[in-house]
C-alpha cells in the first residue's frame, strides 16, 4: 500500500501547531486529526469570533455506517472538521502509512472537561439534545454540580416531526453558544444535516451517549484504558447485547471493504488536503 510520506505528516503536525489543520483521507474516510485541547479551543474560538461551525467525529462504526448510507456520507463531506473518535481509526491510519498517535484521537468525555470551565467563565450557554426522557436533565444536574454556574438546558431525543419544530424553536429562544446532539449514529448526524441552518448556535457537536455517561446510565471506562486501546473491550463487556456487532463484526467488514477498494481503485489509499484555519487569529 502507498503511504503518506514522513515530510507530509510533519507538515500536517506543523500546520496544527501553527493554528491550521489538514484533512487526511484514509481509504474513503476524510478526517482532521485534532487533539482534545484543539477540539475545545476550536469550539471556543468559533464562539469568540461569532462563527457557526459543526465539529463532527468519526470512528470505525461511522465508517461502517457510511459505507451503506449515502446521507451519512453527504454529512461528512459537508463538515470541515471531523476529529478521530476511536483508536480503531488511529490504527487504520498507521496500517495505511499515516503516523497517527494517541494524541490524534479525541472524545467528548475528554474535551468537554476542557471546554466546560471556559463556558462557565465566559457565561456561555449550552443546550443538549438527546437521550431518553429524564436522562439529559439528570446529566445536566450532574454537570452543574461539577461546574457551578454552568448555563445549560436540555431536551430528550425522542422527537416526532412536530416536536422537532418545537425543539428548534426552544433552542433558538435560548440561543446556545454550543449545541450538543446526542442521538447516536447515524441519527444525530442526519438531524444536524437537516436542521443546522435552522438552529441559532455557534457550534454544533454530535456527542452520542455523552449525557448517558454523565447521568451514570452507562458506566464510563477508566480513561487509562485508552492508552492501551482497550476502551472498546470495557464497553463490550458492559453492553454486550448492544455492542457485540459493532466491535466484533463491523471492523472485519470495514477491512474487507478496504481490500475490495484497493483491488478496484488501486493507487494510493491516503492523501493530505490543503490546510484550513483551525483558529481565527
Notes on the structure:
By secondary structure, this protein is of the alpha/beta class. 49% of the residues lie in helices and 15% in strands. The protein has helices spanning 6-17, 36-48, 60-66, 70-78, 87-95, 108-122, 135-146, 161-174, 187-195, 210-214, 231-238, 240-248, 250-265; strands spanning 20-21, 24-26, 29-31, 53-58, 81-84, 125-130, 151-155, 178-182, 203-206, 270-272, 276-277. The strands form three sheets. Strands 5-4-9-8-6-7 form a six-stranded parallel beta sheet, with helices on both faces. The chain has a three-stranded antiparallel beta sheet with strand order 3-2-10, covered by helices on one side. Strands 1-11 form a two-stranded antiparallel ribbon. The radius of gyration is 19 Å and the shape is globular. 41% of the residues are buried. Mean pLDDT is 85; it is low at 1-20.
Helix fraction bin: 40-55%
- In the predicted model, the low-confidence regions spanning at least 5 consecutive residues are 1-20
* β-sheet strand percentage: 15-25%
Biggest pleated sheet: 6 strands, parallel
Total of DSSP H or I helical runs spanning 4+ residues: 13
Strand arrangement, major sheet: 5-4-9-8-6-7
Number of strands: 11
Provide the residue-averaged pLDDT.
85
Assembly state? single chain
Structure class: alpha/beta
Spatial shape: globular
The termini sit apart by 38 Å
Amino acid at each position: 500500500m502507498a503511504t503518506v510520506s514522513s515530510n507530509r505528516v510533519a507538515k500536517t503536525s506543523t500546520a496544527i501547531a501553527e493554528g491550521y489543520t489538514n484533512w487526511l483521507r484514509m481509504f474513503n474516510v476524510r478526517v482532521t486529526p485534532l487533539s482534545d485541547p484543539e477540539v475545545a479551543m476550536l469550539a471556543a474560538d468559533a464562539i469568540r469570533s461569532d462563527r457557526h461551525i459543526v465539529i463532527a467525529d468519526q470512528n470505525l462504526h461511522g465508517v461502517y455506517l457510511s459505507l451503506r448510507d449515502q446521507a451519512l456520507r453527504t454529512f461528512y463531506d459537508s463538515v470541515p472538521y471531523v476529529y478521530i473518535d476511536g483508536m480503531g481509526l488511529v490504527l487504520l491510519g498507521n496500517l495505511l502509512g499515516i503516523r497517527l498517535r494517541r494524541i490524534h484521537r479525541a472524545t467528548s468525555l475528554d474535551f468537554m472537561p476542557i471546554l466546560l470551565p471556559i463556558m462557565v467563565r465566559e457565561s456561555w450557554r449550552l443546550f443538549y439534545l438527546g437521550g431518553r426522557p429524564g436522562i439529559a436533565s439528570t446529566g445536566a444536574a450532574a454537570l452543574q454540580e461539577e461546574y457551578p454556574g454552568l448555563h445549560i438546558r436540555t431536551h430528550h431525543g425522542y422527537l416526532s416531526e412536530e416536536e422537532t419544530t418545537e425543539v428548534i424553536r426552544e433552542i433558538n429562544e435560548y440561543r446556545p453558544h454550543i449545541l450538543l446532539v446526542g442521538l447516536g449514529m447515524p441519527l444525530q448526524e442526519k438531524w444536524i444535516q437537516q436542521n443546522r441552518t435552522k438552529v441559532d448556535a455557534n457550534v454544533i457537536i454530535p456527542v452520542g451517549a455523552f449525557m448517558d455517561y454523565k447521568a451514570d446510565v452507562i458506566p464510563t471506562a477508566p480513561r487509562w484504558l485508552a492508552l492501551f486501546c482497550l476502551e472498546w473491550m470495557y464497553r463490550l463487556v458492559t453492553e454486550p447485547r448492544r455492542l457485540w456487532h459493532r466491535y466484533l463484526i463491523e471492523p472485519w467488514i470495514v477491512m474487507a471493504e478496504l481490500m475490495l477498494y484497493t483491488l478496484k481503485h488501486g493507487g494510493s489509499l491516503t492523501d493530505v488536503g490543503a490546510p484550513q484555519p483551525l483558529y481565527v487569529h
